[in-house]
């Protein structure tokens, strides 16, 4: 199912108590992590905007990310993995816990192997928010939109929203480590 979001920037709003309430209620639901991932996606669409939205879990041992949520399953399916060892993006986002923002197709090209897929869909800016728990990266929340879309203010909103998915990603990360036999 392809759910590319068309969104007019004039419709964005600042985060509200209603947004935080939606997230707080979503994280209490039993259908996790799907419920909180979908709620964060909804609030991110309204407050930041995107066409492509994904949530990735970080595997520190392999230094790669695994897709756990996507609004475009036909192009970016669940369980897709990307190796990030040795990449400038990986060091910046996964190791240093700094948001990554590129506002041009060239900025996407420099950082991502799948840049042709993104730019081929008309996407020209990207915002990657590292999700941290207990001082370490547990994943990323990723939004891609038309060129020139993302700003510093979007990074701040993204960091707030990412806090709601930190625990589910940490739990997934811990479960993955325990089932792989790594201690």
UniProtKB/TrEMBL annotation:
InterPro entries linked to this entry: GAF-like_dom_sf
Record's protein name: GAF sensor protein
Native source species: Paraburkholderia piptadeniae
């Amino acid at each position: 199912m392809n759910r590319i979001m068309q969104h007019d920037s004039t419709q964005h709003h600042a985060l509200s108590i209603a947004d935080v309430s939606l997230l707080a209620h979503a994280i209490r639901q039993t259908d996790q992590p799907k419920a909180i991932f979908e709620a964060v996606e909804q609030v991110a669409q309204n407050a930041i905007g995107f066409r492509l939205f994904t949530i990735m879990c970080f595997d520190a041992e392999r230094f790669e990310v695994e897709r756990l949520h996507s609004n475009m399953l036909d192009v970016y399916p669940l369980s897709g993995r990307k190796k990030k060892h040795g990449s400038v993006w990986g060091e910046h986002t996964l190791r240093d816990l700094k948001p990554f923002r590129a506002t041009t197709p060239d900025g996407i090209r420099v950082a991502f192997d799948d840049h042709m897929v993104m730019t081929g869909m008309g996407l020209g800016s990207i915002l990657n928010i590292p999700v941290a728990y207990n001082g370490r990266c547990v994943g990323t929340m990723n939004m891609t939109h038309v060129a020139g879309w993302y700003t510093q203010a979007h990074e701040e909103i993204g960091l707030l929203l990412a806090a709601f998915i930190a625990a589910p990603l940490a739990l997934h990360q811990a479960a993955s480590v325990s089932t792989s036999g790594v201690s």
